[in-house]
Amino acid sequence: MKHIISVLVENKFGTLNRVASMFSARGFNLASISIGETEDPEISRMTIVTRGDDQIISQVLKQLNRLIDTIKVTDLTKQPHVERELLLMTMKLSRTTQHEIFELINVFKGKVVDIKQKSITIEVIGSPDKINTTIDIFRPYGIRELARSGAVAIHRGES
Amino acid sequence: MHAPGEKLNGSEIFFECLRRENVAYIFGYPGGALLKVYETLYDIKDIKHILVRHEQGATHMAEGYARATGKPGVVLVTSGPGATNTVTGITNAYMDSSPMVIFTGQVPSSLIGNDAFQEADIVGITRPITKHNFLVKDVRELALTIRKAFYLATNGRPGPVLVDMPKDVLNAVCTFEWPETVEIRGFKPTVKCHQNQVEKAAHLIARSKKPLLYIGGGVISSDASEELKRLAIEQNIPVTMTLQGLGAFPGDHPLSMGMLGMHGTFWANQAVNNCDLLIAVGARFDDRVTGKTDTFATQAYKIHNDIDPTNVDKNVKVDLPVVGDAKHFLAAILKEMPEEKTDRSEWLADIRAWQKQCPLTYTNESDSLKTEYVIDEVCRQTGGDAVVTTDVGQHQMWTSQYYRFRKPRSIITSGGLGTMGYGLPAAIGAAFGVTDRPVVLFCGDGGFMMNVQELVTAVYYKIPVKIFLLNNSFLGMVRQWQELFHQEKYSFTDLGDSNPDFVKVAEAFGCRAMRAENPDEAKKAISEALAWNEGPVFVEFKVIKKDMVFPMVPAGASISDMLLDRLNPKTMV
Ligand SMILES: Cc1ncc(C[n+]2csc(CCOP(=O)(O)OP(=O)(O)O)c2C)c(N)n1
C-alpha cells in the first residue's frame, strides 16, 4: 500500500543523502522524495512517498526515526492531510490542436507559463493521481518534456 | 589542561576534548592531514597514543578495548587511504554495536571536492556504516562536535561515530568553549521501559511453565548481568545466549544452556522450539540464531526487549515488544515478580534429557591435536575467567562451545560482520583495557595473516596477549561447507603448501613463540604461555586438518533440523 510520510529534518548538508541511502541500503521502495525549508530555517520538511505492507512501513518509520538528523516522523496516510504535486510540461502546439489544448488546460485548472509558435509550457497542481491523469490526457498531443516535483503534504489544520 | 576561555588551535582543542571525555588511549597512525595534531601530541603525556601498523588494526583495537572495558574506543587516522583503511573496522563496530569514535584528518576545506591529494569523501563513504558522522567545517564547532560524537557513540544502542577534521580547521585558532551538556533533538533513545509492558511481561514470566531467556549482547553492553542472574536463578529459568551474549550468565551454571543457533547446542535449540515463553533481551533475532524464521519458536509467546525499536518485529514477529535498556528492563521485571514460584522441574528435566541425548563432545587422541581440546584446556587452565578474543571461522564456533565463559565482557569476537583479521588487534586493544585477567586469542591460520602486522604493536608495547594459533592448514570453515554442501570441491581453501613457518614469523616480529603437536605438548605450552607476562606469547597448535564443527544447522534450515555429526549428516532428532 502507498504511504505518505512527512519528516522534519535538520537543514544540513547530507541529510537528504542519509535518508535516501537508508532507503536503498534497506531495499525500501522510494516513489518520491521532496524537501524544502520550513518556517524555521534550521529545519526542513521532507515528504516521502513509499510503498509496502504494514511490517515494511513500520520498519521504514522506525529506521527514519533512528537517523540522528530526523526530528519528527509522521505517517500522514491515515490522518487528514493535503497532498499536492506540481507538474511542469512542455507540449507541441499546432493550429489544429491549440483549441483543444487550451480547453483541457482549463479543465485541469492549469496555467500557461510559456508559449511559443510551436510549443506551450503549462503548470498543473494537484494530487499525484490528478497529475497522472493530466499526463495521460495530454500524451496524444505530443509531450516534449515534463518535470514532476514529487508530492508534498501537510497535516490538515485543527478546526 | 586547558580552561574554557583560552585561545587554542584546533589540534589543542581536539586533545583537550579527549581529556575531558576521559580518553586514556588513542589507536592511531599519522599522515599529512594530521601533522598539526601529531605536533601537539608530541608533548602530551596524559593520553596514550598507540601506534598501530595498519589503520584497520587501529579500529579493531579500539573495538577490543571498548568491548573489554565498556568505554568508547578512539581511533585517529589521516585522510584518504588512512580513512578508507578504517572502513571494515567501522562496519564491524556498527554491526556489533560497539561504542567507538573515529577521527579522520581531511584535506583543507578549500580543496574538498577537488580530488585533492589524499582526499576521500569519508563522510559519504561511512554514512551507512556509522551511527552518525560529522564533517567539521569551522574550528568553533569542533568541541561541540566531539562532545556530540562521544554522546552518540555511548548512549542508546552504542555504535561508531566518525568525525572528519579538515587540516585548516586543526590549524585555526578560536576561544575554547566546553559544552557541559549536549542536546541533540533528533536523538532521544527510550531507556526506561513502559511500565505497563513490564507488568505484562512479569505476569507472563511468573505463569509460564516452560520459559526460556534468550540473551544477546545488549545485556553485556548495558551491564545487566547481575539482574539477569537474579531473574534466572530466583525464577529457575534456563538461559541461552547468542555469540555476543556469552558470559552474561555464567556458562558453568546448571541453568546455562550455552549458545543457540547455527552452531549452538542441540538442547538450546530444542528448548527454543519447545518453550512456551521466549524472553529475548538485548538480542536481535539474527538469521544465524533463528534459522528458518517461520519455524522458529512457534509454540512460544515472545517477549522482546531491545533498546533499538528497529530490532523489534524486524526478522521475527513478537507478541510483546518492550523498548528500553536491558538493565532497566530486567530490574523492573525483578520488582514485579510475585513471591510464589511456578514449578519448572519438568521443563528443566526435558532440557537435561536433550543435553544427555546430544552433549558437546570430542574424542582426544594422544598423537594428534584437536582445536576443541586446546580450547577446553585453555578454559580449564584459566578457570573460564580469561578475556577471550577470537578470529572468524571454525575455531570461533568451537570457542563458543568449549570455553565456558563465566563473566560478562569476556568474549570479544566479530559476530555481525564476521571479519577475519579481527582477532589479533582486538586482543591487543582488550589487553590495554584489562590488566587483571589474562587476554587470550584463538585464531585460525587464515585470519591470522590478515592483520599479522599488529604483532609488532603487541611486541613493542609489551602486551601480554596469549596468541593461540589453531593451524589446520585450511580455511577451515569454508572447507567444512565445501565438504558438506559443495561436493567436496576444496576450491582454494587448502593453505598447506603456502602457509609460512608461523613460529619463525612470530619470532621475526620479536615475539616469544612455541609449537605444540599433541595434547601433552599443548597442555604444557598453554601453561607456559599463561605464566609468562613480559609481552605477547605465541603458540602454534598443529591441529588435525579435517575436523568439523557440529552440531550445525544448515543455512536456511529450521533450528530443529541439526546435523549432528559427519557420519550421519542428515540425522535429525
Ligand atoms: C575478511 C574475510 N574474508 C573472507 C571471509 C570468509 N571466511 C569465513 S570463515 C573463513 C575461513 C577461516 O579460516 P581460518 O582463519 O584458517 O580459521 P578456521 O575456520 O580454520 O578456524 C573464510 C575464508 C571472512 N569471514 N572474512
Describe this structure in words.
Chain B: InterPro entries: Acetolactate_synth_lsu, AHAS_TPP, DHS-like_NAD/FAD-binding_dom, THDP-binding, Thiamin_PyroP_enz_cen_dom, Thiamin_PyroP_enz_TPP-bd_dom, TPP_enz, TPP_enzyme_TPP-bd. The complex is a heterodimer of chains A (159) and B (573). By secondary structure, chain A is α+β, with helices and mostly antiparallel strands. Chain A has helices at 15-25, 54-66, 95-107, 128-138; strands at 2-10, 32-37, 43-51, 70-75, 81-92, 111-115, 119-126, 143-148, 152-155. Chain A is elongated, with a radius of gyration of 18 Å. The mean pLDDT of chain A is 95. Chain B is α/β, with parallel strands linked by helices and 573 residues long. In chain B, the strands form four sheets. A six-stranded parallel beta sheet of chain B has the order 3-2-4-5-7-6, sandwiched between helices. Chain B has a six-stranded parallel beta sheet with strand order 11-10-9-12-13-14, with helices on both faces. A six-stranded parallel beta sheet of chain B has the order 16-15-17-18-20-19, sandwiched between helices. In chain B, helix 13 links the parallel strand 12 and strand 13. The termini of chain B are far apart. The relative contact order of chain B is 0.11. Mean pLDDT of chain B is 96; it is low at 569-573. Classes of the chains: A alpha+beta (159), B alpha/beta (573). Bound molecules: thiamine diphosphate.
Please outline the helices and strands.
The complex is a heterodimer of chains A (159) and B (573).
Chain A: E1 2-10, H1 15-25, E2 32-37, E3 43-51, H2 54-66, E4 70-75, E5 81-92, H3 95-107, E6 111-115, E7 119-126, H4 128-138, E8 143-148, E9 152-155
Antiparallel strand pairs in A: 1-3, 1-4, 2-3, 5-7, 5-8, 5-9, 6-7
Chain B: E1 7-9, H1 10-20, E2 25-28, H2 35-41, E3 48-51, H3 55-69, E4 73-77, H4 81-84, H5 87-95, E5 100-106, H6 122-126, E6 132-135, H7 142-154, E7 160-166, H8 167-171, E8 173-175, H9 195-207, E9 211-215, H10 217-221, H11 225-235, E10 239-241, E11 256-259, H12 266-274, E12 277-281, H13 287-290, E13 301-306, E14 320-323, H14 326-336, H15 345-357, H16 371-382, E15 387-390, H17 394-402, E16 411-412, H18 423-433, E17 439-444, H19 445-448, H20 455-460, E18 465-471, H21 476-485, H22 502-508, E19 512-516, H23 519-531, E20 537-542
Helix pairs in contact in B: 1-2, 1-7, 3-5, 3-18, 9-14, 11-14, 12-15, 16-17, 16-23
The complex binds thiamine diphosphate.
Thiamine diphosphate is lined by residues 391-395, 418-421, 444-447, 470, 472, 474-478 of chain B.
